[in-house]
Specification:
Layout (H helix, E strand, L loop, with lengths): L2 H13 L2 H8 L3 H15 L4 E2 L6 E2 L1 H28 L4 E8 L3 H15 L3 E8 L1 H10 L4 E6 L6 E14 L29 H11 L18 H9 L5 E4 L12 E3 L4 E11 L5 H14 L2 H4 L4 E3 L6 H10 L1
Helix pairs in contact: 1-2, 1-4, 2-3, 5-9, 7-11
């Protein structure tokens, strides 16, 4: 039994004629007849007496028609509920965002999203990628702003922009005076990473052509989780860093920030939700607010190569040991 079959029954009750009912339902008369026959065979009851003119419901058919009217009303109510839910711009929304993006993106777009959705209360949480994916799947978060693709089939990704990576060099670096940065053999041992930011580190290792950070030699191990701390370590001549472009939006001295030559390594930033998330209009508003707040340098077209993290041997090994 289907909703469409019940609609055919109501059309027949209204028109009391197969040809007219088929026209109302915008189907062929044979098609409507077959669907009615299939329904009657399924339930084992004749709904209409075909020997009478005009077509007349049987005694049990009248009861089925009345119940069909109720079912279709409820189906319409469900449809209206879903439409309203998709278009709802009210209530509380829990948003997670990766820590390597949050300090730079949130200040840029927060006022725009407040203006676009004044009745929505946002609760924003910073976390690493693994925690964000887990919280989305368990319902602790509604939306996550993070690097993709995740490779998680239970999550739906809505890409917003591609953020270029840039080199952050100290004044003594051999390429400090060049216009672009190119990886130098000696640099691989000087790359600074972030503690527990496994997806971010995996991207940096990919850019540098390394499989794991064990090949990076240093006298000290830096257990830091902030890009700003990495910058200070670079300024202290303790290595170099590869950082996302938004992290230099507020930099006053850009002389030691070097772009890569095209194709530029980038990370894809997306709105990520569970496969049961329904507020589509809210996602559109968030996407618009974020995109409109980005610097023009990120919105322009350029040749790039997207850096993945979820298939990195380093990421898989690190996550397994972390769990």
């Amino acid at each position: 039994m289907t909703i469409q079959q019940l609609k055919y029954v109501l059309a027949l009750d209204q028109e009391r004629h197969f040809a007219k009912a088929a026209e109302v339902c915008m189907v062929t008369q044979p098609g409507l007849t077959i669907q009615l026959k299939n329904l009657e065979e399924e339930i084992g009851i004749k709904i209409f007496d075909r020997n009478k003119v005009p077509l007349t419901p049987t005694k049990l058919g009248i009861e089925i028609i009345n119940r069909a009217k109720k079912i279709l009303r409820e189906a319409d109510e469900i449809r209206d509920f879903v439409v309203n839910e998709k278009n709802s711009l009210e209530g509380e929304i829990k948003v997670g965002i990766i820590t390597t993006l949050s300090p730079y993106l949130i200040p840029l777009f927060i006022n725009r999203i407040k203006e676009a959705t004044p009745k929505v209360h946002f609760i924003i949480k910073e976390a690493n990628t693994g925690q964000l994916m887990n919280d989305l799947e368990t319902g602790l978060l509604d939306v996550a702003i993070m690097a993709t693709p995740t490779g998680n089939t239970n999550l739906i990704e809505h890409p917003i922009f591609k953020e270029p990576f840039m080199a952050y060099l100290n004044a003594n670096h051999p390429m400090a005076k060049d216009d672009f940065y190119e990886m130098q053999p000696a640099d691989k041992a000087e790359l600074l990473l972030l503690h527990s930011e496994f997806c971010y580190n995996a991207q940096l290792l990919d850019i540098c052509g390394l499989e794991n950070p064990e090949k990076i030699k240093a006298q000290f191990t830096y257990d830091v989780s902030s890009i700003e701390t990495l910058k200070n370590l670079v300024r202290a001549d303790l290595g170099f860093a590869i950082i996302p472009e938004l992290s230099i939006v507020y930099e006053k001295d850009s002389r030691l920030i070097k772009p890569f030559k095209e194709p530029v390594p980038v990370r894809e930033i997306s709105l990520v939700v569970s496969d049961s998330f329904s507020k589509k209009l809210l996602l559109e508003k968030m996407n618009e607010a974020i995109w409109s707040s980005l610097p023009d340098s990120i919105k322009k077209d350029f040749a790039y190569r997207k850096i993945r993290w979820n298939d990195s041997p380093y990421f898989v090994k690190s996550i397994n040991s972390f769990m």
